[in-house]
Amino acid sequence: MYEFILYSRKGHTSGNFSTLSSAGRLDTVYQCILTALFKSYGYRRDVIFHAILEGPPNPPLHLQVDGRKLERTTVDEVTWTRVLNLVLKGQKYLGISIEKKSFEVLLKEKQQESIPIFVLHEKGKSIMEVEFGPEAVFVLGDNIGLPKQKEKFALRFGEKISLGKQSYLALSCIDIINFLLDNYARTHFGISR
Amino acid sequence: MYEFILYSRKGHTSGNFSTLSSAGRLDTVYQCILTALFKSYGYRRDVIFHAILEGPPNPPLHLQVDGRKLERTTVDEVTWTRVLNLVLKGQKYLGISIEKKSFEVLLKEKQQESIPIFVLHEKGKSIMEVEFGPEAVFVLGDNIGLPKQKEKFALRFGEKISLGKQSYLALSCIDIINFLLDNYARTHFGISR
């Protein structure tokens, strides 16, 4: 499995919002779900998306969207405003879960599972030079980036990697990584993701 | 300039909708505007996005979003629902224009401007082997793909290129092309886009 962890500084942790952008920029979370998990026809079954929400009233929350289980969702923001509202109100939704968990605890868990952790960073090693296996975790900041303290913590467990000189939106970073992994998996493992 | 042309079979051609997805999948148009024109901070000033809308009541319409002129828009779907409604009602909006024009006429114009035209196609030449200049037009289908007749027309003017075996959403295709052009421009022209 490939996993993306988005750190959302202000993403609201209860479901009482009319728009995602007014809920601590949950629109960024939606956009990342879109590019992490959706192909032209169907889902990426080998991807798990995580967001750590640090906004009011109940931070930190860990939102997980599991590509192995997702069904019957569409790609538009209106649908995901409804879905995220429901889930953050405590309702169940297939493939999506919420729990009280910090960024630090989530990263420690991934390390204990021996999954290589990569932290997107403009000064990192070029992603083109990284050797991937069948599992990897990619850590991204939201529209403001990772706070210094969180970045420092993540780098105790992971390696800095860079997508180049350009500064991309978080959803675009995920698209690019998925594309490179598609090619990498075909070239190195002979499989179609 | 780099240009993207999205052919939208059903995109509505008047501004009286509550959601983009109910307006002939204008959510796909919004998503492509997002990845064509937005970087982490600011706009891609070297990109023009076009959509040909073929839905009711007044097809075909040519929507153009010019990265050189865009100001003060945000990246969420709610904002773009408002913007596209306004523009399709005939109101002016900085950087965005609407005119009555067909897919065929738009492509002929690009050819007359001597801009190389590339048509995304699963059986095309790998994009990795294409030589780019400082200008290019990329033609994409919507969530259903290009109709056969439109594809045939486009291939009179352009070359088939492929992003690989994976079937990507239209917004992801644009992210991937922008990423590859970022690297190409740096390697071949020594410039940052």
- Rg of chain A: 16 Å
Which spans of chain A have pLDDT < 50 for at least 5 consecutive residues? Answer: none
Q: Count interface residues per chain for the largest interface.
A: A-B, 36 and 36 residues
| Main sheet attributes: strand count, strand direction, barrel closure of chain A | 7 strands, mixed
Descriptive report:
- 2 copies of one chain form a homodimer.
- Chain A has a 7-stranded mixed sheet.
- The N and C termini of chain A lie close together (10 Å).
- Chain A is 33% helix and 23% strand.
- Chain A has a single domain (2-188), classed as SPOUT methyltransferase, trefoil knot domain (Alpha/beta knot, 3-Layer(aba) Sandwich), CATH 3.40.1280.10.
- In chain A, helix 1 (26-37) runs parallel beside helix 5 and helix 3 (103-112) runs parallel beside helix 4.
- By secondary structure, chain A is of the alpha/beta class.
- Chain A has 5 helices and 7 strands, in the order βαββαβαββαβα.
- The radius of gyration of chain A is 16 Å and the shape is globular.
- In chain A, a hairpin with a 7-residue loop joins strand 2 and strand 3.
- The mean pLDDT of chain A is 96.
- The A-B interface holds A 19-21, 27, 31, 34-35, 38-41, 74-79, 143, 163-169, 171-172, 175-176, 178-179, 182-183, 186, 192-193 and B 19-21, 27, 31, 34-35, 38-41, 74-79, 143, 163-169, 171-172, 175-176, 178-179, 182-183, 186, 192-193.
